[in-house]
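Dear colleague,

As promised, here are the two records you asked about, laid out in our usual form so they can be pasted straight into your sheet.

NAME FIELD: protein one
SEQUENCE, THEN STRUCTURE:
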Amino acid sequence: MAWYDVIGGVSHIETSNIESRKFGRNIGRFFVGENWGKQFKSEGELQQSLLELFASDTHDLTVMRVPSGLIDLINRTNFKNRTLLFVGTLVYWEIRLNAYDLNFASGNIETAEHLEKDTYGEIYKVLDSSFSNYKNHYTANPLLHTDSATESYRDWAFHVLENTPENVVVVKLDGKIAGLAVINPNQGGPVEIMLAGIAEDFQRRG
């Protein structure tokens, strides 16, 4: 869930094709941004709009992400034919990168578009070791196979790597790929880190 989703409006419920293929179920997603609720005069109107949105939803399960201020309202809403499952919280933070010694010219940090494809295997190993046994909204859902949770993160990162390698930043230590981040440049705006991981051999080293 990108920052612009958090502060924006409400999105339509859309099918997540990658997740649907991975888990063998029809999975939908939608986001509620903080600005969305401001158009309603009352909490009841906002609640009714949510009910109408879900009335036509035919997905086996739908991943809904909402601002923390709406959690109480969501919990008090009776979504017909749906069971609500609270599965975690996303925390957003920001930092000024110029306060740190992040020097792309040093060769220790670079985007994947500068890498040979035969080195992608190292990136895959970083993803596997970073997200093995990772607890998230996949593992919390009894309808999904927990052994596919790690694969889902990996497959999504693979998709970005294969199609937009300039949005994958890798960090090298001792001549090896130690970590990576999948970023969203936001067309000249703030760069968002959508996913990041450190290889097991390089974890807990500061």
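NAME FIELD: protein two
SEQUENCE, THEN STRUCTURE:
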Amino acid sequence: VSAQYSFEGHTINRAPWCVDTLVKVDDDVSNMHTTMYVISRTFEKSRSQGTRTHVELIMPHTLDFGEG
């Protein structure tokens, strides 16, 4: 399971979005209410749309980095 979201602003609870963190997802449209892992984020700024953030999320414990 993965999710991608785009929204206004660059912060969540006054902190910038960060890769390699867990965030709470409350998405009534997709009926997804869970904690997800941030694997990518992109910040944008334009005159017409202002500041925007794009994030890509996956379920926790779905990435396996293997052993060294």
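A couple of things worth noting about protein two: The chain has a mean pLDDT of 91. Residues 13 and 23 are 11 Å apart (CA to CA).

Best,
R.
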